[in-house]
Amino acid sequence: MTKFFFIAKDRAGIKITGVEEANSSEETAARLQARGLFVISINSESELAGPLLSRKKKYGHSKVSSGDLVNFCRQMATLLGSGVTILRSLDIISEQVQSRRLYKVAKEIKKAMEEGLSFHEALAKHPKVFSELWVNLVESGEASGSLPVVLDRLAKSLERGAEFKRKILTALFYPGILMVVGLGALLFLTIKIIPTFAEIFKGFNLTLPFITQVLMYISEAVRKYFIIAVVIIVISFVLLKKYIATEPGRRQYEKILFLLPVFGDFFRALIGERFSSEMSILIESGVPILYSLEIAEQSVGSLIVADYIRKMKDDVRQGKTLSQPLADCGFFEPMVVQMVSVGEEIGELSQMFKRINNFYQDSVETFLARFTALFEPIMLIFMGGIIGIMVLGMFLPIFQMSKIGGS
């Protein structure tokens, strides 16, 4: 008897995956059709693994990207949901990954499990690849016997997060390109064009207009001190980065970000989005609220908010509802607090956190849409004004020369 992995649909159009032991794919198809299922595909275990194991492994890159983790999680959920063992799933997936490091990690996870570790314990041995969120969700899935379901939820959460990041990067890409091109144009005019005009004006006995003199002084200073300025900027950036890497520096940095006019709300929404995303999937997967808060505290990405979550955890441990300390910290909007309160009352806290997550994602996307819509005309007006001043400063002496020549 051979194991055949199938994908089919029932009469309602719902996709069903599973595994059947039969003598042939035809026999498997007949069984499925007898159950009223529409067969989409049937593959034997050797057909799934054979082509992958027979070819020489090639890698697309070395590091483990968020896309690699999404694919890994999605494939694990599908294979386990189809009845494939974890060890066999790791074999199949490791031959498909594009990341050299993830390939090695998958092999090491399999080896650790063969030595007696559970899946979540094997994942925990690679904290730089699999976060606490991964480890605890897998542990919850193993304990409840619903690992495929938990991995499917995690895959969906990772996919939503990856799509959200892509939207942010896409929205910021055009303003970034516009700024780089604009600064490049200004540097070119300052370093190349203005000195050319300055050489021309030296041959004439002219009293240069004030604006022209200022531009020439700026041009000379930029050309003389450009390299020094670049070095100072790079050193300052490196030192600032090292300071931010320290706990006091990080806290000061976050305080400044959150207090920025206009952009402060944007950074708050980003943190709120991450917190609500993790809480929704943790609670939905059966992780206790205190443990969920502990995981969120470690992975929320903000020391200030981590302090708030630690206080929430202490208050919840003392018997308070989550909405009380959430309101006391003052970081989250009143609407968010009310939604959590309602979720606790009706026993749908995970669903409320999902709605909160959608709220924060919508807030970020709306901000970015408005920002990009306003940035282009503001940048164009600014660049146009600067370039206009430069052109005016260079052509005013020419107008003077034309008047002198005409008289």
Please tell me about this protein's structure.
By secondary structure, this protein is mainly α. The chain is 76% helix and 6% strand. Strands 2-1-3 form a three-stranded antiparallel β-sheet. The N and C termini lie far apart (107 Å). About 1% of the residues have low confidence.
Largest sheet: 3 strands, antiparallel
Number of structurally distinct domains: 2
Distance between the termini: 107 Å
The H/E string reads EEHEHHHHHHHHHHHHHHH
Give a quick precis of the structure.
With 407 residues, the chain is mostly helical. It contains 16 helices and three strands.
SSE layout:
Layout: E1 2-9, E2 15-22, H1 25-34, E3 38-44, H2 45-54, H3 66-81, H4 86-94, H5 100-114, H6 119-124, H7 132-144, H8 147-202, H9 210-245, H10 247-259, H11 263-284, H12 289-299, H13 303-317, H14 323-329, H15 334-346, H16 349-406
Antiparallel strand pairs: 1-2, 1-3
Helix pairs in contact: 3-4, 3-8, 4-5, 7-8, 8-9, 8-16, 9-10, 9-16, 10-11, 11-12, 11-16, 12-13, 13-14, 14-15, 15-16
Could you list some keywords that capture this structure?
Receptor-associated Protein, 6% strand, 407 residues, 2 domains, 3 strands, mainly alpha, 3-stranded antiparallel beta sheet
